[in-house]
Amino acid sequence: MKQKFNVITSTCAPLPLENVDTDQIIPARFLKATDKKGFGDNLFRDWRYNKDGSPKPDFVLNKPEFKDAVILVAGKNFGSGSSREHAAWAIAGYGFRVVISSFFADIHKNNELNNFVLPVVVTEPFLKELFDSIDKNPAMTVTVDLPNQTVTNNATGSQEHFEINGYKKHCLENGLDDVDFLVENKDKVEEYENKRKQGK
């Protein structure tokens, strides 16, 4: 799942529902696993499949026009509820690189960042415009530019700036997790420790 993030232009899978919690993203019965493999298959499991395992044709991820989308556009307060990191595993495992919403639960937002998924917070009017644009033309695209921290609705030309922690931005741009970052800065850490031991 470690992928360098720069600029992504993609169609978008719309999920215009508010308060989508982590139990809806990945139901609790799938939390026994400790390996990230296979979680993408069960993303939104109860909305996505019938009880017999057959796909529900009216659910967004089962519609052919959205099968290649790597951007999920979701309603306000995405990722609320339980702090389970498995929800971010499922989103990343499915193949989403970006989730756009007007508000994210803090823990889920950080879990997405730790799993190389970029949560982009936009204003509610911009989010509504995205949903409207997708509804009018499912083939429309959005461009997310991490270096410049902008998100652009290519159907209308509207653009917003989004915020991201500088450390997390560096990690995403370079495909680094927290351990990778420490290894990358091993010399600096050792230099600091040596100075500290010497009382400098």
TrEMBL record:
It catalyses: (2R,3S)-3-isopropylmalate = (2S)-2-isopropylmalate. Keywords: Amino-acid biosynthesis, Branched-chain amino acid biosynthesis, Leucine biosynthesis, Lyase. GO terms for biological process: L-leucine biosynthetic process. Its EC number is 4.2.1.33. Pfam families: Aconitase_C (PF00694). GO terms for molecular function: 3-isopropylmalate dehydratase activity. It is an enzyme of class 4 (lyase). GO terms for cellular component: 3-isopropylmalate dehydratase complex. Residues 4-123 form the Aconitase A/isopropylmalate dehydratase small subunit swivel domain. Pathway: Amino-acid biosynthesis; L-leucine biosynthesis; L-leucine from 3-methyl-2-oxobutanoate: step 2/4. Catalyzes the isomerization between 2-isopropylmalate and 3-isopropylmalate, via the formation of 2-isopropylmaleate. Heterodimer of LeuC and LeuD. Belongs to the LeuD family. LeuD type 1 subfamily. This is 3-isopropylmalate dehydratase small subunit. It comes from Prevotella lacticifex. The gene is leuD.
